[in-house]
Amino acid sequence: MAVADGAPAPEPVSAPQPRAAEPPHAAEAPEPARAAEPARPAPEEAPQAPRAAAQPPSTPAEAGFRLPDPALVSRTMADVAERGQRIVAEFLRRQGGAEGPPNPDPLNIGSAFLDMTTRLMTNPARLMQAQIGFWQDYLTLWQNTARRMLGGAAEPVIAERKGDKRFKDDAWRENEVFDFIKQSYLLSSRYVTNLVHGAEGLEPKAAQKVDFYTRQFVDAMSPTNFWLTNPEVLRKTAETGGENLLKGLSNLLSDLERGKGKLRINMTDESKFSIGENIAVTPGKVVYRNALMELIQYSPTTETVLKRPLLILPPWINKFYILDLRPKNSFVRWAVSQGHTVFICSWVNPDESLAEMGFDDYMRLGPYAALEAIEKATGERQVNAIGYCLGGTLLASTLAHMAQKGDDRVASATFFTTMLDFEEAGELGVFIDEEQLQAIEAKMNQRGYLEGAEMADTFNMLRANDLIWSFVVQNYMLGQEPFPFDLLFWNGDSTRMPARMHSFYLRRMYQQNDLVKPGAIELDGVALDLREIRTPSYVLATREDHIAPWKSSYRATQIFSGPVRFVLAASGHIAGVVNPPESGKYSHWVGTGPAPESPAEWFEHATEFAGSWWPDWQRWITAQDRSMAPARQPGAGALPALEDAPGSYVKVMAGD
Predict the structure, then answer these.
(1) Is the separation of the CB atoms in 634 and 641 below 8 Å?
(2) Which of 201, 269, 361, 405 is in Cβ range 3.0-4.6 Å of 484 for a Cys bridge?
(3) NCBIfam families from the xrefs (predicted)?
(4) Is 629 left (phi over 0), alpha (psi -120 to 50) or beta?
(5) Phi, psi torsion values for 347, nearest 5 degrees
(6) Are 169 and 235 in contact (CB under 8 A)?
(7) Quick check: 146 pLDDT over 90?
(8) What residues have CB less than 8 Å from 374, skipping those under 6 apart?
(9) How far apart are CA 345 and CA 355, in angstroms?
(10) H/E/C letters for each residue in 62-124?
(11) Is the predicted pLDDT of residue 82 greater than 90, yes or no?
(12) Is the CB of residue 497 less than 8 Å from the CB of residue 455?
């Protein structure tokens, strides 16, 4: 981090909902996140800066061009000199402390591209054909541009894909020069990507890596990323006399300072958010704490509640409050309002002292410890459980462990965007090969953990245009201050990963795909077999998930032995999950009858419903057991309240 049911369904809609951008999980990624959603998603769809008039001015007079303030220029240059010296000194100090020489190919892409080039050269006829087609399109573009300059009309040779926000400015269509630049870029991009796709005989992992990094290069070379070929930046420069570029330079230096010599793009105005004050504010208490997690119990808002408490296991790649951002989009607050006694694990942000914590420790000190604490707090032995992404992988592992021991304390299981079968792990698989794993492990062995910012960089690359280049343009070229956005704040609040646990997760699950092999993984002395899971399960996947591809999450329907309801939500890893009914956004698909082996076949026969999947889940969960009990106040049971929610662990930043 991902069909038997008794839940009634709402009326279907006839047309799919439009796609929505989202950050990675950031850690996961966040969606970014911006978004990632978060992966950090990512973040989903960040607010765009206001756009100026479309047509770029052709002369200084038309532009209202003014010279920059000399005093401002002097102050900025003096500031640049002073801060630049500090940044360079810090960078050199950190480089001097690194062990061993730098790796010239840390991402291990050189051999893959060499193999691709070799295979392309073995088919010169195909290469020549591709080049001829490219130049034919280019000549047509020249002719069309000349026709437009003479006052005629011409259809574009190539158009950007629908929803490509890079070319929103009207000048990309209305001005002949910028239209030519845009189409030249799109033609070149198509030529390069088609050429890479056409390399026959590449090993699948190498082909995936070449395709991914080719797209990274293509995205980086977009004309929107250079001030001389971006009409919006040129217009802003003319209007401000270049003050936008001076401000952008200051923003760049600030981000280098934040990263201590490494660029750390500021995606949102972090000063506008404070955890526990306007983020993660659902009332509750921490009722239990151990070395890995704090267990939060939330205060009820109904007089009676469902008898079974609800335990949520979020991923520890990100912080739990993605499910409790603000009241309007908080899944936690909504679940409380539906009559659930909600408990959530707030994972610690580990440091070097927890380097030896493993996946089995997360199971023992996570769900197992939470089950014991919940029974003390409420008197209830059985719970409904939710696992999100990596938290879902942990939940499935725990259920398989419990199945071998005859433990039935988890009465129903819900999986949000969870992978159990990692055979088709999506684009994250690009970063999982032996050379890169060894490099990651070397860093972790030196520190005791994987730095959260390094993982965030990985997730941001999955959505580079949304989570990297858009901020390069806004922050550094337009000189704008980041917009306050809760999802991007969460996406930037990265977490570390203990060395032993993370190495196990990457090798045994991502690289070797051992979790779906019966008996291949052993936790706390018990061999796991996911086929032994007979717990009623609700499996939610999201259609545009870059972190847990929905067809991989679907595999759970073929693995579990108990009844499974599979639901596919529109949008991505964060936005598809954090989608309150009141928003009226997106849609979801539900199948009927037993789930077929093929996810494509399931989707072909599934029915689409408008809006959020949250009410569908509520109908399903209450169908499992409708028994009610008086509302439970945190701290009123055998477990006293330790402190107010959201607790202390969530407030530890990765840089602390």
Answers:
(1) yes
(2) 269
(3) PHA_synth_I
(4) beta
(5) -75, 150
(6) no
(7) yes
(8) 295, 309, 311, 343, 380, 383
(9) 20
(10) HHCCCCCCHHHHHHHHHHHHHHHHHHHHHHHHHHHCCCCCCCCCCCCCHHHHHHHHHHHHCCH
(11) no
(12) yes
Alpha carbon distance 81, 185 (integer Å): 36
- Half-sphere exposure of 235 toward its Cβ, with a 13 Å CA cutoff? 14
The one-letter code for the residue type at 182 is K
Q: Which of 196, 323, 389, 577 is catalytic?
A: 389
Average pLDDT of the residues in 164-189? 94
Contact 264/274 with Cβ under 8 angstroms?
no
Q: How far apart are CA 75 and CA 94, in angstroms?
A: 29
Residue-wise pLDDT tens digits, 404-429: 999 999 999 999 999 999 998 888 88
Q: Which of 510, 573, 515, 513 is nearest to 541 (CA)?
A: 573
- What number of residues does the chain have? 656
Q: Supply the pLDDT for residue 114.
A: 77
In angstroms, the CA 227 to CA 481 distance is: 18
Across 34-48, 69-83, 105-119, 416-430, the highest mean pLDDT is recorded for 416-430
The answer to whether 253 and 84 are in contact (CB under 8 A) is yes
501: nearest Cα among 420, 400, 390, 392: 390
Compute CA distances 94 → 83, 113, 653, whole Å: 17, 31, 21
Reading phi first (left if > 0) and then psi (alpha if -120 to 50, else beta), residue 548 is in: beta
One-character DSSP codes across 400-448? HHHHHHT---EEEEEEES--S--TT-GGGGGG-SHHHHHHHHHHHHHHS
Closest CA to 29 of 426, 369, 501, 302: 426
Looking at residue 33, what is its pLDDT?
Answer: 37
The DSSP H or E segment spanning 184 is: helix 176-197
Strand 383-388, strand 410-416: pairing: parallel
- Token pair for residue 623? 């169908």
Please state, in angstroms and rounded to a whole number, the distance separating the CA atoms of residues 30 and 38: 4
Residue corresponding to tokens 């303030």:
69
Q: What pLDDT sits at residue 55?
A: 46
Name the phi and psi angles at 12, rounded to 5.
Answer: -75, 160
> How many helices, marked H, and strands, marked E, lie in the chain?
23, 17
Residue 69 burial (C-beta neighbours within 10 Å; 0-12, 13-18, 19+): middle
Exposed / middle / buried, residue 451 (Cβ in 10 Å: 0-12, 13-18, 19+)? middle
Best CA proximity match to 253, nearest among 265, 241, 242, 243: 265
> What's the first-to-final CA gap in the chain, in angstroms?
25
